[in-house]
Amino acid sequence: MSEVQILESVQQFMARQHGHFIDGKLVAAEHLDKVDIVNPSTEQVVAQISIGSQHDVESAVKSAEHAFQNAWAETTPYERGVKLNKLADLIEQYGEELAQLETLSTGKLINISRHLEVAQSVIFLRYFAGWATKINGQTMQPSIPSMQGEKYTAFTLRQPIGVVAGIVPWNFSLMIGVWKIGSALTTGCTIVLKPSEFASLSLLRLAELAIEAGIPAGVINVVTGKGDTGQYLIESPLVKKVSFTGSVPTGIAIGKLAMSSDLTRVSLELGGKNAIAILADANIDEILPTLLQATFVHQGQVCASPERFFVHHTKYDELVEKLSKALSGFKIGSAMDEGSMFGPLSNQPHFHKV
Fold first, then answer.
1. Number of other CB atoms surrounding residue 122 within 10 Å
2. Largest alpha-carbon pair distance within the chain?
3. Cα–Cα distance between 296 and 207 in angstroms, integer?
4. Helix (H) or strand (E) holding 34
5. Per-residue b/e over 50-84, b at no fewer than 16 CB within 10 Å?
6. I need a labelling partner for 268 at 20 to 30 A (CA). Which of 142, 184, 208, 248 fits?
């Protein structure tokens, strides 16, 4: 066994009475209803989060709108980039803490939390920070007929739109949350995040680190809860853009709701049904390590993971034999065990669905 010891700071964070993160601070929820955060490796409750009411959501959106009109609007593109890079520094500094929160909430293997979730969050955030000073419009000469020899110039001006609602799934909550934070803040927008009720802790901690990074209060807000909380967020008249990552059925519902809410802009990144084709000239020994990694990383709970294999009949028996042998050697165990190769599925509803 190489079970990782839980950091004291992680234990203290999980033991808190979690509310929502609004206007730069932890705010108690309107209602006392809670959702248990269950460690999938042990099935023990490790924390509780609040369920955001319509009042909670509106408080967060108003905070984001105020920050957009005032604090963040007065921040230059260069300063936005500096602050996002500072947040990336803090994610690195507190990387083990964030990784453990992810693993204890979602059953993601600790090494995946460290080297994929946290590490890629840093890389993505620095990528977005680099764009802060490089968002430009363009000018062109349109082909409008001249009446008296006059000439015309057309131009585009890129401007932030306001408050963005970011609805984040449970499989990579920190990293996908960072995608939404980075893109919104780089362009001058502010954001209200609604994490999955199964995986909220790392984003609540990230919001605290944003204040430490010098990002003004209200620019990043986090409201936890279930589907109703997300619906309140989408329906808010102050929300000008919805960014959702998740399943196709939920995405369709969110798209319809956003369109009916004053034609709110919406971006949907939805699940797929990916396939691998193994042709007659494939070298099974060569492709097997990549195939295993692509298919079974985070227990296959990745939208890009292949779910179907189309195998040429001449390669079928060899693939089945070698794949079966490789899988039988997988060490299945606790997500906090550094030696585990396959951990638990992330939550009970997903377990029953599978």
1. 19
2. 84
3. 31
4. strand 34-39
5. bbbbeebbbbbbbbbbbbbeebbeebeeeebbbbb
6. 208
Mean pLDDT (whole number) for 17-45: 96
Q: Which residues are designated catalytic?
A: 269, 303
Cut 0.85: pTM above it: yes
* Helix (H/G/I), strand (E/B), else coil: 276: strand
Residues 6+ apart with CB under 8 A from 278: 284, 287, 309, 310, 311, 312, 315, 319
| Percent of the chain surpassing pLDDT 70 | 100
Structure tokens at 46: 């490790």
Joined together, the tokens standing for residue 179 give 């995608």
Both tokens assigned to 291: 């195939």
Q: In the predicted model, is pLDDT for residue 236 greater than 70? A: yes
Distance CA 226, CA 136 (A): 38
The DSSP call for residue 297 is: G
Position with higher pLDDT, 128 vs 273: 128
Environment class of residue 308 by beta-carbon count within 10 Å: exposed (0-12), middle (13-18) or buried (19+)? exposed
pLDDT (tens digit per residue) in 246-283: 999 999 999 999 999 989 999 999 988 899 999 999 99
